[in-house]
Write a structure and sequence with these properties.
Number of helices: 10
Strand content: 15-25%
Structural class: alpha+beta
Strand order of the largest sheet: 1-2-10-7-12-5-4-3
Oligomer: single chain
Family: Belongs to the iron/ascorbate-dependent oxidoreductase family.
Shape: globular
Organism: Baudoinia panamericana (strain UAMH 10762)
Radius of gyration: 20 Å
CATH architecture: Sandwich
Helix content: 25-40%
Number of strands: 15
CATH superfamily: B-lactam Antibiotic, Isopenicillin N Synthase, Chain
Order of helices and strands: EHEHHEEHHEHEEEEEHEEHHHEEE
CATH topology: Jelly Rolls
Protein name: Fe2OG dioxygenase domain-containing protein
InterPro entries: DIOX_N, IPNS-like_FE2OG_OXY, IPNS-like_sf, Iron_ascorbate_oxido_reductase
Number of domains: 1
Distance between the termini: 44 Å
Largest sheet: 8 strands, mixed
Length: 394
């Protein structure tokens, strides 16, 4: 039986104001329909219950690549505390720390502070997105985090440890079973495990309202369509509607608020390892509905990464792949397969992540190297990295 999260003691620490959840939208939107996975059922002694859970997981990741995860071991009050801390960081980080810890995209990593002026180190046009990203080795390094959050780093570290070592590990167990492989296959062979967040990172993000000319200039898009590089992304559902997924209906659909739930999307590493059976989820962040446009959107995200030195290949030992073959839909696996068939080494995971972060992170579709192309009636932004073509719907 999986143990629930245990929060560190908060006695003697500075007082942290409580984060007040914004009201949910009353707009009638074209909501995405996502499956809900009750992670606690993985511990059921009833084999039929576990078997049904695996089948539901298989359906969810084949249809959407996105799913809701519930009953994963963190209480609503424990989650509230983490949002309180994220708000505290954004309200109290000093200007000196913003400069000292300013993100350097040339490093190929998101580590540190992102200012609300674009996705480069130098200030560009206003996008209203501030972030602090805690990275491997730096989450325990007191010189690499803002001074204001130092008294609470035991809580943040414990939270990340639990999300990575318990929640994500159990989720990877489910996904390994979908591939009909041993429970620890994806955890042991694909998931980066060095230190607290491995090669991944934990993000405190704050989206300020985007209004007037800024809203027009960005065409109501906060973050352009993309997929994540790693294994899984664990995003805590928030009341302010902005996250959209590219659904099986071939259109962008918003994700509805699900209190306490984790919104999980699968990364490119799992799409490749699964031979295309798992979909790396295409998603973007847009402007909010009109009745929420004055509210800030506070977000907590854990990005779980695949081992940096690996050159990902499909797990051909999977009975599922042996029985059903590859799924050759448009995506990064299809592009990797072209290199594999030509005998060309695919990029290492580290190379794949870092080339995109350091060169064209969050570039508008029309500014990509291949511009915008229409395929089958759908417009895609087209780019290429290390011989791998990347197409993402506009």
């Amino acid at each position: 039986m999986s143990a629930p999260f245990t929060s560190p003691n908060i006695e003697g620490k500075p007082i942290v104001p409580r984060w007040q959840r914004p009201p949910t939208t009353q707009a009638d939107l074209d909501w995405a329909t996502l499956h809900t996975i009750d992670l606690s059922l993985l511990d059921s002694p009833d084999e039929d219950v576990v078997r049904d859970l695996v089948e539901l997981t298989k359906t969810a990741i084949r249809e959407d690549g996105f799913l809701f995860l519930t009953n994963y071991g963190v209480s609503l009050e424990q989650l509230q505390r983490q949002f309180d801390l994220a708000q505290y960081l954004h309200r109290n980080i000093s200007d000196d720390d913003k400069q000292r810890l300013l993100w350097d995209p040339s490093s190929g990593r998101f580590a540190g502070w992102k200012q609300q002026w674009g996705w480069k180190r130098e200030a560009g046009e206003f996008d209203g997105i501030e972030q602090f990203n805690f990275y491997r080795g730096e989450i325990e390094n007191r010189d690499r985090v803002p001074d204001c959050i130092l008294p609470f780093m035991d809580e943040i570290t414990a939270f990340c440890d639990y999300l990575t070592g318990s929640v994500n590990r159990r989720l990877l167990t489910l996904l390994s079973r979908v591939l009909e492989l041993p429970d620890n296959y994806l955890w042991d062979h694909i998931q980066s495990q060095d230190s607290t967040v491995g090669d991944g990172y934990f993000r405190h993000a704050l989206f300020h309202p985007l209004l007037g000319e800024d809203k027009k200039r960005r065409k109501s898009v906060r973050m352009y369509g993309h997929t994540d590089y790693g294994t899984t992304t664990l995003l805590f559902s928030v009341p302010v509607t902005a996250l959209h997924i590219w659904s099986k209906q071939d259109r962008w659909q918003p994700v509805k608020y699900n209190p306490g739930a984790l919104v999980v999307n699968l990364g490119e590493a799992l799409e490749i390892v699964s031979g295309g059976h798992f979909k790396a989820t295409k998603h973007k962040v847009t402007d909010t509905p009109a009745d929420q446009e004055e509210f800030e959107r506070l977000s907590l995200v854990l990005f779980n990464a695949s081992k940096g030195d690996m050159r990902l290949m499909p797990a051909v030992e999977s009975p599922l792949l042996q029985r059903e073959g590859f799924v050759m839909e448009q995506g990064v696996f299809q592009q990797y397969k072209k290199l594999i068939d030509a005998g060309i080494p695919v990029p290492t995971n580290k190379q794949w992540r870092e080339i995109q972060i350091s060169t064209r992170s969050q570039v508008a579709p029309e500014e990509k190297s291949g511009g915008v192309q229409e395929i089958g009636g759908v417009k895609f932004g087209v780019d290429e990295f290390l011989g791998v073509k990347v197409l993402l719907p506009v």
